[in-house]
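Lab notebook, bench 4. We co-purified these components, and the gel suggests they stay together. Before we commit to crystallization screens, I want a quick structural picture of the whole thing.
Request: model the full complex, all chains together.
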Amino acid sequence: MATLTVPVTVPSPAEDCEQLRKAFGGWGTNEALIISILAHRNASQRRLIRSTYSQIYGEELLKSLNDEISGDFERAVILWTRDPAERDAMLANEAVLRWKPGNPVLIEIACARTSSELFAVRQAYHTLFKRSLEEDVAAHTTGSFRKLLVPLVSSHRYEGPEVNMKLAKSEAKILHEKISDKAYDHEDVIRILSTRSKAQLIATLNQFNNEFGNAFNKNLKSDPKDEFLASLRAVVRCFCCPERYFAKVARVAIEGLGTDENALTRVIVTRTEVDMKLIKEAYLKRNSVPLDRAVAGDTSGDYENMLIALLGA
Amino acid sequence: MATLTVPVTVPSPAEDCEQLRKAFGGWGTNEALIISILAHRNASQRRLIRSTYSQIYGEELLKSLNDEISGDFERAVILWTRDPAERDAMLANEAVLRWKPGNPVLIEIACARTSSELFAVRQAYHTLFKRSLEEDVAAHTTGSFRKLLVPLVSSHRYEGPEVNMKLAKSEAKILHEKISDKAYDHEDVIRILSTRSKAQLIATLNQFNNEFGNAFNKNLKSDPKDEFLASLRAVVRCFCCPERYFAKVARVAIEGLGTDENALTRVIVTRTEVDMKLIKEAYLKRNSVPLDRAVAGDTSGDYENMLIALLGA
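Here is the predicted assembly.
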């Protein structure tokens, strides 16, 4: 379901590093060469390139990239080149330090990764920032958001397929009661969303739909401007339909006056190796335009070329 | 700091299994032989014995032990023989399913283990119970206890030595305010206790002592029967002085009418390979009686022999 394309015969890490070094040298940076290498290597290949580069040239590849390129292109290349866990830790740290209600990055990292991926992010966070992710989230967020986000980023959900239908029924009822009372941040709502396994949660939400005649998320639209309700909807969508969730994040980033490059970059670099094919299908279905074409129409230059390469063009 | 004694020349796992099989066979079980083997092997040696045993005899060692021995002796041998993470997952599950306020087992597992040990417990919990630890804790506890225990068992604390003294000062002040207002389960109290690194937390508690003239825990004794206050004190003691904390659990288990065998077994099997030497020193200092002698005076038979062997006699 990934859109990453890797050449049939991959050059050795040392050859890749030599080419990258060439791209950085001379009179101007050769951005096309950088893209032709890094945008076509998977996570473990990129990791090898990074370690080989620092062995050969005594400098971090990310540092060289940082010196040579800039702007949205730089951000896309550097985020992409990082290890997924490290990249998520960076994104989470940014989201926490510049915390504003409604920022969905922490929810994506907590709910649209596997349990072991989320744990790897928490380990990377220790290494990079000398603090824990939940510690920073708890210290920088407040109110209902804190109540929701701290358990979400701390969770280590069971990932088996087992479903307890009796539990699904009783918890669908609890959710319905609390939502009907507009107790959106009630501890039981948060407990159910932040601790149950994905399979159990989906069963509960299906049960909610069967029993009460409309989807849980439909009940969270009473105030379209309420950022907490939007966060709850994002949690549910990251579990139930991540491809449609990310297609929408991309659409919102592209639509309107000015592109939200950070959001667009985030969707593409974090999903290219995961489910970008599905996101592209969802995007096309919803918008009647291929995502590649929408991205090409809204971005330009090396940044455009980098994103389009990751989208598998 | 462990009291485990392992022979200089350790028999092969196959030899150990053969001896154990002998101990199980014949007219009666040879409990002394079981103790002489299992109570003198470390965690990785026991793991090898378990896997070798099931390969040779087509039966789990724990199942054979379960068939052959009983009572407190059985519980001690089986808990000891398990992997530490698996053992903690079992103890946590028991504590959760028979939840009563004031049960300190979850606090010990959350606060007197390293971050990676706690994470291993959470992984073992998935494997054994097909649910997550935090999911069960959230579903079976209520009120202030839930507010405290869910973040504690979900934490993955940073373990570096870095301390932010400004933060220690400001959080000591927050703790003092909340405790003075008797807001013991205030979200900031729980946030500080459940997310900060051990080094940072100890700095904050020292700062509390310096600034306000007495120790944080002394402020949590307003009602000696309040189980939530006892839980907060246990959190602090598991971080600051685990050896004195466990010495006290052992003392309370031994003292009074009837021994609390479950608590005594738990302290000994969970700490023998960790810090039992320090616990014995703390016990002697506080009670003027060696822990071994107190245990021998209060237990009997094979159970006594097993505990005494683990205590390094």
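The mean pLDDT of chain B is 96. Worth comparing against the SEC data before the next meeting. The domain at 243-310 of chain B is CATH 1.10.220.10 (Annexin V; domain 1).
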